[in-house]
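Q: Hand in one record:
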Amino acid sequence: MRDREQEARDRMVRDQLEARGIRDERVLAVMRRVPRHLFVPEPWRENAYDDRPQPIGENQTISQPLMVALMTELLDLRGGETVLELGTGSGYQTAVLAEMCERVVSIERHVPLAEQAKRVLTSLSYANIEIHVADGTLGWPADAPYPSIVVTAGAPSVPPPLVEQLAPGGRLVVPVGDREMQTLTRICKDAAGRTSWSEHGRCVFVPVVGQHGWREERWDPDA
């Protein structure tokens, strides 16, 4: 079973990532290693390495492998950072980040997903991850500023608290657009605090819900 899963990861990296332009060898190596299937619920586990998102409950998904790789590559991680992640979801992107940085602070608004992600990540012996249940559009001020921030859901606009919590020299990667389609956007902040924006293709994510996101549903983290 382990050999079959490793073969599936190798094919995923070769056919979905390298073939479509992912060049960061660190990202490719991590995605050959992290067991994506363990982050997918059992009914869909046999499709874990397919070139598409998979459902994980709470109307959320685990992102397509290519999108996980691209967002990670755009962060340009060097190994000593603390990364702020908005949207823990399954915990798969969290694990990929944790392999490439010093520490991950991850925010999830769905309690069941946060608890399941913690179980899987603990079973895989990750010790450099903190998961908090909160409104991620407010960031996590306690550990700011962050050299790297990634948002794994689609936002109608860039949440201002995330830009504020981005360190000089830092990078923020976020899908921005409407509910049906977004543009993957990277925001870089220079040493003087000025920001520059670049676009990296169209994408489709579940919506960011929160004070600085979509407001179509009520949510109380203490409820």
Residues 2-17 form the longest helix (16 residues). The beta strands are 54-57, 60-62, 82-86, 103-108, 129-133, 146-151, 166-177, 182-189, 195-203.
